[in-house]
Amino acid sequence: MSDVETSAPGTAAVRPAAPTGAVVHDEALEARAPWAHVITAGQTLRIVDLGGNQAVDCLFYAAHDTTERYSAADTITAQRNIYLVAGSELRSNEGTVLLTVTGTSLAHHDTIGGACSRESNTLRYGHHTLHQHACVDNFLDAGSMFGLGKRDLVSNINWFMNVPVGPTGLLGIVDGISAPGLHVDLRAEVDVIALISNCPQINNPCNGFDPTPVQLTVYAPDPG
Ligand SMILES: [Zn+2]
Predict the structure, then answer these.
(1) Model confidence pTM above 0.85
(2) How far, in Å, is the centroid of ligand 1 from the Cα of 186?
C-alpha cells in the first residue's frame, strides 16, 4: 500500500507521519536567509514552519543537468490542480518527477504566486522598498554555489503560502493558513539541487509581516 494518501489533488490531505530514515542534515534556517543543498534520490527533505505563516520560496534542479528544473506549468497540468498537496509530484520541464510530496500537515501549498523581488516590491509597494531584501536576491545567492544565475530562475514553489484562486480566476496573496510546527515532506526521486529563500517580504501578509526561521531536515531513505 502506498504511504501517500490517495485523496484527489486539492483536497485537504493530511499525513503527519515522520520519515523513518536517519537524519543526515539538520539546521534552522534563519529568517530572510538563503539555502542551497543537494538532496539525493530517496532522501526526504522536511521543512517545518517554526513560527507559522512563513512562506518558503523554493526551486529544484536536476543535479546532473541544471537545464532540467522544476516546472510549475508541467506540475499543474499533470496533476490537473493548481495547489500542491500530499501526493503531488513535482515535475520538471521535461516531465520527469523530481520529487514527491510524501506528506504535509497543511491543506495546500502555492506554486503560482511567484517570488518577491526588489523590482516587484517597488512597483507594488513604493520606491521606499527598493533596498529591502527579496527572494530573488536569495535565489541568486544560493544558486551561485552551483553556477546558477538569473536566467535559471523560473516560476517557483511557495511552501506554506496561501494564494487562493477565486471562481473568476482572480488570485490573491492573503493571510496564511499555516501555523507553528506544520511541515511538508519532499522525497527526491532523482538527485536534485534545492534552492530555498526563507522569504523576507514584509509588505504583504505572506509572512504575517514578521519573517521567522524554518527547520530544514534531510533524512536518509526509509529503511524499508
Ligand atoms: Zn519573498
Answers:
(1) yes
(2) 20
